[in-house]
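Page 37, continued from 36.
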């Protein structure tokens, strides 16, 4: 991976994202709906003002903000973590940004409307690493971004709350990767195995 255009502004971006998620975790237990509203407002402000925003300067004046499904408390789920018996490594080609090595480290198991399902949990390899949880669903490519959405990307501070045996899956926070807004960004897209067999009408949308 190459050096970013301005490492210091990127470091500030990541720190700000981490602070936004820390506030969301702190408020999430006592006021989940309020935490979601504050998160969305803070994210839009970051997109409007930060030099590393995926919304280009030329577009910001007429940009109306990100679009979201209405908050739905039923999409806040605490899933059980099942550790993978062995790390299954694979590579993701990020074009100009090189090859990203990734490993499947476990599964988040939960039920939705009586249907048992799971999402694979991944770990970005390399110095520091980070937990990554992307997903696709029946809205992908229609109401939501075709490459999938993210719930976790801890290398950039996106962390809703994960422990040794459980993980918070609040799909109201599901967000588009930066490449959904600017094709100059290279983003790892969700592996096909993380396609949910139903529509997740929660989180960020494209239309």
């Amino acid at each position: 991976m190459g050096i970013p255009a301005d490492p210091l502004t990127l470091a500030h971006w990541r720190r700000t994202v981490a602070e936004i998620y820390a506030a969301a975790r702190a408020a999430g237990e006592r006021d989940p709906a309020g935490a979601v509203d504050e998160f969305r407002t803070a994210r839009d402000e970051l997109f409007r003002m930060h030099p590393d925003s995926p919304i280009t300067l030329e577009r910001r004046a007429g940009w109306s903000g990100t679009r979201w499904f209405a908050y739905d408390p039923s999409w806040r789920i605490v899933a059980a973590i099942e550790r993978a018996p062995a790390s299954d490594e694979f590579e993701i080609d990020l074009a100009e940004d090189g090859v990203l090595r990734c490993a499947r480290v476990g599964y988040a198991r939960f039920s939705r409307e009586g249907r048992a399902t799971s999402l694979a949990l991944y770990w970005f390899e390399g110095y520091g690493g980070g937990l990554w949880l992307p997903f696709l669903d029946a809205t992908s490519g229609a109401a939501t971004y075709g490459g999938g959405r993210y719930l976790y990307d801890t290398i950039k501070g996106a962390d809703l709350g994960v422990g040794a045996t459980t993980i918070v899956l609040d799909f109201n926070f599901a967000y588009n990767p930066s490449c959904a807004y600017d094709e100059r960004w290279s983003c790892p897209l969700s592996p096909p195995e993380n396609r949910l067999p139903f529509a997740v009408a929660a989180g960020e949308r494209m239309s």
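The chain has one domain: 7-205. Flag for discussion at group meeting. DSSP finds three helices and eight strands in the chain.
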